[in-house]
C-alpha cells in the first residue's frame, strides 16, 4: 500500500471530528506541483475531492489550469495540513487538527521527488513551512513569484473577498507570474 492510500485509511481523529475521519489527499510520485492547504471543506468532505467548491474554482483560475489538469494526480499533489473536515466554527471552518502534519507530511513529501513548485495556501501551511511567518499579506506581498520554490498564497475562499479587494495587486501582479510558474512546472 502506498503512502497516499495509508493516509486515506487513517482514523487517528475519527472520534474527535464531527463527521468522522474521511481523509482527503491527492497525488502520485510523479506530481509536479504540490498544494498544501488548510483542511478539506464540507463539500470536499461530501464529495471526497479536494477544492471541489468555489475556492477550488478560484484557485484553478489563479493557476491557469483546467479541472482535468488540477485533478490529475500525476500533475498536482494536494496535501492539506489536516486531511479531514474539522467542522464548522464561528467564522468559517475550524482550524486543522495538529496531529495530521506531524504524522503524515514527511512520509508524503518523501514520495514527491518530482515536485518543483510548492504552493502554501493560508496561514497554517505558511506557519508550518516558511521559517519567518509574519502574516499572509506580508508573505504574499514580499514573495518572489518568479523564483521561489515555496510560494505563499492567500486562501481562495469567497470569504476572502475583502482581502482580495483590499490587495488588488495580488490578482493583477502576482497571479500572472503564478500562472507562468505553474505552466513551467507542469511542462518540465
From TrEMBL:
SUPFAM superfamilies: Uracil-DNA glycosylase-like. InterPro entries: HI_0220.2, Uracil-DNA_glycosylase-like, Uracil-DNA_glycosylase-like_sf. CDD domains: UDG_like. Residues 24-179 form the Uracil-DNA glycosylase-like domain. This is Uracil-DNA glycosylase family protein. It comes from Pseudoalteromonas maricaloris. The lineage of its organism: Bacteria, Pseudomonadati, Pseudomonadota, Gammaproteobacteria, Alteromonadales.
Amino acid at each position: 500500500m502506498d503512502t497516499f492510500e495509508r493516509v486515506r485509511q487513517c482514523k487517528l481523529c475519527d472520534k474527535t471530528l464531527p463527521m468522522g475521519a474521511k481523509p482527503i489527499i491527492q497525488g502520485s510520485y510523479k506530481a509536479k506541483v504540490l498544494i498544501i492547504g488548510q483542511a478539506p471543506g464540507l463539500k470536499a468532505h461530501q464529495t471526497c475531492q479536494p477544492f471541489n467548491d468555489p475556492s477550488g474554482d478560484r484557485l484553478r483560475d489563479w493557476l491557469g489550469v483546467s479541472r482535468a489538469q488540477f485533478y490529475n494526480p500525476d500533475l498536482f499533489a494536494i496535501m492539506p495540513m489536516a486531511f479531514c473536515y474539522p467542522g464548522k466554527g464561528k467564522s468559517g471552518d475550524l482550524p486543522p487538527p495538529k496531529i495530521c502534519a506531524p504524522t503524515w507530511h514527511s512520509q508524503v513529501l518523501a514520495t514527491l521527488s518530482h515536485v518543483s513548485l510548492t504552493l502554501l495556501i493560508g496561514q497554517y501551511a505558511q506557519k508550518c513551512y516558511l521559517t519567518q511567518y509574519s502574516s499572509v499579506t506580508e508573505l504574499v506581498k514580499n514573495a518572489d513569484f518568479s523564483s521561489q520554490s515555496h510560494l505563499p498564497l492567500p486562501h481562495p475562499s469567497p470569504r476572502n473577498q475583502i482581502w482580495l479587494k483590499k490587495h488588488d495587486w495580488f490578482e493583477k501582479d502576482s497571479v500572472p507570474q503564478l500562472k507562468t510558474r505553474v505552466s513551467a512546472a507542469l511542462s518540465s
